[in-house]
Amino acid sequence: MLYYLFKYLHEQYDLIGTGVFRYITFRAALALIFSLIISLIFGKKIIAFLRKKQIGETIRDLGLEGEKQKSGTPTMGGIIIITAIVIPTLLLAKLNNIYIILMLIATLWLGTLGFLDDYIKVFKKDKEGLKGKFKIIAQISIGLIVALVLYFHPDVVIKERIISNQNEAWAYIDDKKAENQEKINIPIYAKNETKCLKTSIPFVKNNELNYSKFISWLCDDCEKYGWIVFIPIVILIITAVSNGANITDGIDGLASGTSAIIGVTLGILAYVSGNKIFSDYLHIMFIPNTGELVVFIFAFVGACIGFLWYNTYPAQVFMGDTGSLTIGGIIAVFAIAIRKELLLPILCGIFLVENLSVILQVAYFKYQKKKRGIEYAREHRLFKMAPFHHHYQKLGYHESKIVMRFFIAGILLAALSIITLKLR
């Protein structure tokens, strides 16, 4: 909304300073600041409200150090994160941008899903929360919406770089104030934008994969049915990443801090993908209109960092499913929108390991139970406890040390993700 106000003031009255709102980088920085302010100021009030209403977390007895002290800590703090994302986005982003609209829908959809789950746990005193089948239905539904919008909406396009024997055009900038002319490289792109199901593959030289190719061999005209492959992949990614963030939210500050690191990386990837000059220099897919997503993702980063202020050990508030399902879903939808979803196993490596630790723990237990009996299976688990962060707690590490080391691993994974832009 502020974007449109300052745009009007600039165009109609040419007020000094109003033109700066045209720049994505400025609005992204402002979104980060606004989001931090909302998280820190309103977060305190929301926590006080949650305490007043006695909306506290019921902690299961897992035999972990410091576990009992956390009982009664306010939960549903994901409301802080959602508020700190949505308000700056509404104020500073272009609201007619389909990618921004899609991100807001996904945020509110998954936030509502998580809120219902927390509400049942807290107010209905049902530890199981919302039944698993309803969660899956809701996640599949938002995955279907995202996939259909990205496939059918006319503004979701890419611009193909023309590759030929003469793939560089040279132009001269004639600046009257300059004494000499400057020679620069201009990328050559197709005149018209293209609708297709291409995505990026890390570590591959010609790093574009078209989902339609998976069924193109069936018949001559089968490529147009690429959505048959695309939709299930989108649903799988959104479900997996949102649940991965949910599992990671097990100790103070881990999910919010890790998500902030991932958010910064996605912001960089979105900026270069939506910028013709940078995308050409890096030889990556140029996706028009995605640059605006940088404003959204920096609001997301600010929200995560602001929430971390209250969620770091010892936590004053837990995000609950209201926050964890939302941040995981946002990361997944964002990566799909900028066509970097195949990079998620690296970038979200923390989420992946946490997910795999649970899967492997259960599978190994069932195997040992079947082969050698339940008593042996209980005594010889693959990990001391799953998810993986609890394994280290059982080994005697303090949760602050675990969180910081996971952050370091997250930063390394983020750096590796950015390096894939050139490492092929």
Provide a concise account of the structure shown.
The chain is mainly alpha-helical.
Overview of this protein structure:
It is a single chain. It contains 16 helices and 4 strands. With 424 residues, the protein is mainly alpha-helical. The protein has a domain at 2-157 and 224-344. The strands form 2 sheets. Strands 1-2 form a two-stranded antiparallel ribbon. A two-stranded antiparallel ribbon has the order 3-4. The radius of gyration is 24 Å and the shape is globular.
Strand order of the largest sheet: 1-2
Report the portion of residues in β strands: under 5%
Largest sheet: 2 strands, antiparallel
Coarse morphology:
globular
Count of helical stretches: 16
- The gyration radius over C-alpha positions equals 24 Å
